[in-house]
Each structure stands twice: as C-alpha cells, then as structure tokens.
Amino acid sequence: MKFGCPVELTIERISGKWKSVILWWLRQHRKSFGELKHLIPGISAKILTQQLRELEKDGLIDREAYREMPRRVEYSITPLGETLSPIIELMCEWGKNQLPEFKFGLRDLTGLRVLIVSPEMGGFLRSELESHGVQVAIATSTIEALQTFDLTQPQALVIDTDMPDDQVYTLVHQIKELESAQGKQIATIALIAVASSGDRRQALRSGFQICLTQPVDIAELVCSLASLTGSLVDN
C-alpha cells in the first residue's frame, strides 16, 4: 500500500474502533484475551480476535500462548507499539475535553460500592476512589473482609493478593459461592506484587476477572471498575 502522507500510515495502523482502546489497556502490563474482553464490554470475541491479529501483524503487540489447560493467551505491547502511547494518551485527553462529564473516559462512579482488601494500600486507594464518587470500605485481613462484605454488600472487590495470611484465594472462592447464591455478579480485581506469569495465572484461575500490577495505576483501576460494573458512559 502506498501512502501520500505519513498521517495516512498512522491512521491505517490504528484504524478500527477498538485498536487504540486495546493499545491503551496494554500500555502498562500484559493482558489475557479474557481480561481484554472484560475491559472492553462492547467488543465481540470475533472482532477482538481480528483486531489483535492485525495489531500483532503490524508489530504493535506480541502474543504469547501458554502450554496449559485451559488454554491461555496473553498480549503485551511491543517497543514499536509503545511509540504510539503519546498519541493514544492525547486522544484520550482530547475526548475528555470534549466531554467534560467524563472522568478517565468514564462517568463519575458515584454510589459504586467497593471493598478493598489490603493491609497497606487501603487508605491510599480509598482517597483516590472517593474522588470519583466511589463508596469505599476497607478490610485489612481476609476474616475482616468477609465480615465487611456482609455489612456493605459491595459491587466490586479490589484485593491485594500478597496478604500475610495467605487466604486470598479461599476468600475469592467464598465470595464466588455467595455470588452464586445471591444470583448476582461481583467484580473482582487482583492487585499482584509482580507481573509474573505464575501469579497472573493463579489469580485468573481462582476467579479474579482482572489483574493489576502494583504500584496501581489509578486511571487503569477506575476504568477497570467502570468496565466490570457496567458504569460506562452512554454516548
């Protein structure tokens, strides 16, 4: 294909409704196919697969398939893809400036109930999330988390997987049982200390929908909560 202007090449590489969104989600850390599907609710599995293949073909993302069952595939941004990050961020800022009611591309999350389970990060995350209208409860242990869960009935959980009592995955299992009994879905986000394949695999297989690596990017956390709880802005 011949291009009369360099802008044409840039647009051709990131054209399509979702490519820029995919690159934004991959700008910090790798994501599995399932995570991307959760984070971009409006995209079908077929279109997501197609867009990922095109981004990989253009050298903007890498794909890694793991020899395990169930099958797991993860995607990460390449050095070439990272060169587009300033453009993606400017696109995000431009959109927010045109829609002042947006916060990180999402509406104010006023009233969303979130339980944070962490011995150390609860205070910091509470301050950040409350600025977006989130009602935040904090538990510093898994035992306290179950008690607080019953009292607050959160719509989402943000859990530090590096808890000293090593009962995080038991907690998630118990929450999933409550979720099934109550007939409702509760968003679950894992905060992992290291972006290792093993930690991510264990968290995702245990029932977490999304893994975020510490230190937490607040914009990514806010966007993740909005995507998982259906708090996206209607346009």
Q: Which stretches are low in confidence, meaning pLDDT under 50 for 5 or more residues running?
A: none
Give average pLDDT, whole number.
Answer: 85
- Rg value: 19 Å
Question: In CATH terms, what is the fold-level topology of the largest domain?
Answer: Rossmann fold
CA-to-CA gap between the ends?
Answer: 34 Å
Q: Quick one: how many beta strands?
A: 8
Secondary-structure content class: alpha/beta
Shape: globular
Q: Report the helical percentage.
A: 40-55%
Which oligomerization state do the chains in this entry correspond to? Answer: single chain
- CATH architecture group name of the largest domain: 3-Layer(aba) Sandwich
Whole-number tally of structural domains: 2
For the largest beta sheet, what order do the strands appear in spatially?
5-4-6-7-8
CATH class category name of the largest domain: Alpha Beta
CATH superfamily of the largest domain: Response regulator
Number of helices: 11
Give the SSE string. Answer: HHEHHEEHHEHEHEHEHEH
Q: Major sheet, described briefly?
A: 5 strands, parallel
Percentage of residues in strands: 15-25%
